[in-house]
Amino acid sequence: MAYRVTVERTTVCPTAVVMADTTWREFRALWPKLLDEVWAFLRATPGLRTDGHNVMLYRNKVSDSEVAVEVGVQVTKSFQSKGRVAASTLPATEAATTLHAGTPAELGAAHLAVLAWCREQRREVTGVRWEIYGDPDAQTGHFDVAVFWQLA
After folding, report:
1. DSSP class of residue 64?
2. Exposed, middle or buried: residue 130 (CB in 10 Å: 0-12, 13-18, 19+)?
3. Are residues 29 and 108 in contact, defined by beta-carbon separation less than 8 angstroms?
4. Would you kindly state where each structural domain of the chain is located, as residue ranges?
5. Which of 29, 40, 86, 141 could hold 81 in an S-S bridge, CB 3.0 to 4.6 Å?
6. 60 falls in which pLDDT band (50, 70, 90)?
């Protein structure tokens, strides 16, 4: 799949998230549980979410195999944390971005495309990156994913 990478100035976006320090291997099984916690909180907190999307924000840790993650949903405003669900934000920053229209299993290709573009353009990334998951198509269940990498 060919990806078109652009630079975008993002605005701060409030999120409800569960944060975790994990490995990439463990993350595959962990993220659905974290997202379920956030959705349970949102169902019990009317008005906090209107049309926000699922999000995942990643910050590399000490090694390439470890990562600090925030798994959650875009919300309308900040709020008091409850249990493991915390108020956070997607950053207001300059980011390289692309849209992934393939299957979720192929999402890594979008990240690699952004990194390749950054190398070609001599743009450094900070390591902070995030994904915003679009609404699923009612008939096919397909959804697009916007991929962002914060530029240094």
Report:
1. T
2. buried
3. no
4. 6-151
5. 86
6. confident
